[in-house]
Amino acid sequence: MSGAETIEGGCRCGAVRYRAGGGPLWVTHCHCEECRRSSGAPVSTFVGVRSGEFAFVAGTPSAYESSPEVMRRFCGACGTPLTYEAAVYPGEVHIMAGTLDSPAGLMPERHVFVRERMPWMDVADGLARHDTLPQGVPRVPRA
């Protein structure tokens, strides 16, 4: 996927739709407890995009502050988790990869918070593994 491509997606019932221009900044699997509880899955895969290039284009998602300075948005009709935004990542919106219209071409680059993963969750896929969030991860568009 080139950095100029548009990313589109939405919730299961179709009530909420979004669009992001500029392509992904990164794609990451997160194993933290907060994401597990928010998604209901053992791992959450996120696609980071620039907040200035992201917009909800149909419907208005519901939102809640899952922890201080962290906002998660979801469809109020069907409950699909859609995005994650945190003050520690200014200028970024993290999209739940499972809500993308075409997720297959976006390959994850790493696993984060592996120390919190479920012991039965095998992550022997050859991707970089980090016990927490790695420092110095570049926030630049992927080629």
Topology:
Blueprint lengths: L6 E4 L6 E4 L5 E5 L2 H7 L4 E7 L3 E5 L3 E6 L2 E5 L6 E6 L5 E5 L13 E3 L15 E2 L14
Parallel strand pairs: 3-10, 10-11
Antiparallel strand pairs: 1-2, 2-5, 3-4, 4-9, 6-7, 7-8, 8-9
Describe this structure in words.
The protein has a single domain (7-119), classed as Beta Complex (Metal Binding Protein, Guanine Nucleotide Exchange Factor, Chain A), CATH 2.170.150. It has one helix at 33-39, and strands at residues 7-10, 17-20, 26-30, 44-50, 54-58, 62-67, 70-74, 81-86, 92-96, 110-112, 128-129. By secondary structure, the protein is mainly beta. It is 5% helix and 36% strand. Strands 6-7-8-9-4-3-10-11 form an eight-stranded mixed sheet. Strands 1-2-5 form a three-stranded antiparallel sheet, with no helix packed on it.
- Count of DSSP H/I helices: 1
What string gives the helices and strands in order? EEEHEEEEEEEE
End-to-end C-alpha gap: 7 Å
CATH class: Mainly Beta
- Named CATH topology: Metal Binding Protein, Guanine Nucleotide Exchange Factor, Chain A
Residue runs with pLDDT of under 50 for 5 or more positions: 138-143
Q: Briefly note the structural class of the backbone.
A: mainly beta
Note the overall shape. globular
